[in-house]
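Handout, page 2. Input:
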Amino acid sequence: MFNPKKYSAQMKTAKKKVAIIMVCFNRWSLTRLSLLSIFKNTHLPHTLTVVDNGSWDGTPEKLKHLKRTGKIDKVILLPKNVGIGRGKNYGLKTWKDKANWYACIDNDIEVRSPYWLSYMCYATNIPKSELGKYDGLGVVGSNVQGFGKRREYKWFKVTQWKTVNGVILDNCPNPGGIYVFNASTFKKLGYFREWSLYGLEDSNYHARQKHHNLRSVYVRNADCREMKDVRFKMPGGGNYRDFKTNTHQRIVKKNRLLQTKKKFKLFKHFETSITQEQIKKYTYKGE
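Output:
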């Protein structure tokens, strides 16, 4: 049976680590709760990078304080909202070839299980012999309802796929909100697409796995919860998703058209144009 506490100790001895990446745009009240849950419940060796997408609600100053006090390893402060896909890519580019796993977590996710990261990292390295026709598990997520409840979709029924050494793996339509992939998967798939302000980058990453005979799962042992509150108001009024602009809606429509025409197969691997110079320019130095 898998022992997450022992696994964490083994990874520490082996000097293996996870690069945790969070992208935020305002919503400090939720970002704060998400960060506190990571501080409390993450025991696997890791680095924590927060990329701010041009927030104006005071989030950058709060992140600077957490960097100065050693709570966050890197803070990247972008001058404008470049989209969540490119924002994540700033984090990935920062830790490329320096981490064994990469964990992307939205700033409205609360991690509840003390060993959520151990379970998810372990799942990414489950041997092929346990996975039937698949060569491996690519992007591993958590069904963010929490407390063992499964998120229900009108178009997909989340059911248990299999259990490996006590780790429960559920069928997954698309891991979003929080997910982990190992360095091997990153090398195969590359970076996230950078075509939208909000969303879609994870569904595209998920779709690209099929070209490498990988699949996604929810790890039920990794208990996480989505904290989105439609009542949350942005500074100056409006809902936190108001930046899903008409342009974004057109991109959604185009994205669905691409899926219909099966053009996702063109995106087996994606490289970003982000340079180390840009990362250095926008990384907070801690003064």
